[in-house]
Amino acid sequence: MRYAVLGTGVVGRTIAARLTSLGHEVALGTRTPEATLGRAEPDAYGNPPVAQWLEEHDQVQLLAFAEAAAFGDAVVNTTAGAASLQALEAAGRDNLAGKTLIDIANPLDFSQGMPPSLNPVDTDSLGEQIQRSFPEARVVKTLNTMNARIMVEPSRVAGTHNVFLSGDDGDAKKAVTDLLVSFGWPVHDIIDLGDITTARGTEMLLPIWLRLWGTLGHADFNFHIQGARATS
Amino acid sequence: MRYAVLGTGVVGRTIAARLTSLGHEVALGTRTPEATLGRAEPDAYGNPPVAQWLEEHDQVQLLAFAEAAAFGDAVVNTTAGAASLQALEAAGRDNLAGKTLIDIANPLDFSQGMPPSLNPVDTDSLGEQIQRSFPEARVVKTLNTMNARIMVEPSRVAGTHNVFLSGDDGDAKKAVTDLLVSFGWPVHDIIDLGDITTARGTEMLLPIWLRLWGTLGHADFNFHIQGARATS
Asked: Model pTM greater than 0.90?
């Protein structure tokens, strides 16, 4: 299958690499490929320049948002939450219509300093904003509650832990479930919370996730709902 | 030890009964004991009237908020979040000064219908509001992320799961840790998140908790941070 992965940060690269390893064709989407390729320095998080990453992952092509979205049978949003609606606008609603749109972004707001706050929060969510803005896309919020490496390799964390799904389209959630299983998620550890409004709950896990990251000193942890299954 | 448990709902009753069973002296605090005792009908959640519950738990005395708080060496807030600051004001700042104040309340706002929203949220929390309003109390936010029965009997949920602590006073958190251990919590399953601002993170677990309650159809589940310990 063909995937468009919008966003060239660590989440986008991790998802793109995993999709490629599973035999999918992947276009990585960015605002202006020339500008992205022109960056010679590591990004703010110390990740190597995209150009270097692309040399090491030569099956992945870098395209502008609209070209990438047109290429993909499904689209994955890994852009920064504050920029997601703009990025999807650039991707083009016609290029999203009818497609599964996997939203991994979190609406972190760093404008007031650290720790970041959320915007929107509580009575709305980024997942809902995206679904409202692109009603013909089939938005599924998932994977936004953990470190990128765990998303594509859940066995990094020993023991049972969970990934959540939120979305209005049952077929799209089924397709995303199959994708998660191909990533290594046991199907009974995938919890379908319900419609896209349940994305509020998963996005609001970010504050405790960030505190736990600080307290534990590492990111190799994940949420596990103990008691969700009869056996653990 | 003497405990004041403010609030006569299911959380207050459950905590009060457990404290009594552990040999503590307990005063249950309410706004107007006469009015509380005068209620003859079950409450909105189907719980029996307080008068009936007190007959079955005759070691617990019902007192006005201020008398209860004066009685307690430590105070437990189980009032509805929207009423907590008022209840603590009625309890009296002199009666709270220097004492450990265990805050189990969540700032659920039902004014916009279901599901409830949170107020405050994101950049503030009820735990912080209480600490700011009563600076001489030693506020520890804990137990607010699970059903009342699990709070006092963690083995109801099979397998490892966690309870969180947030607070600025290390001695108070140590005292609450000891109390949680006496409730049955393994000490290594108690996660100290840090200062009282981390209460934002635990209060913001409520939206996903409420969705999981609906999805799972029962409340005998709890959050487990998989990867928080080397072994699970």
From this structure: yes
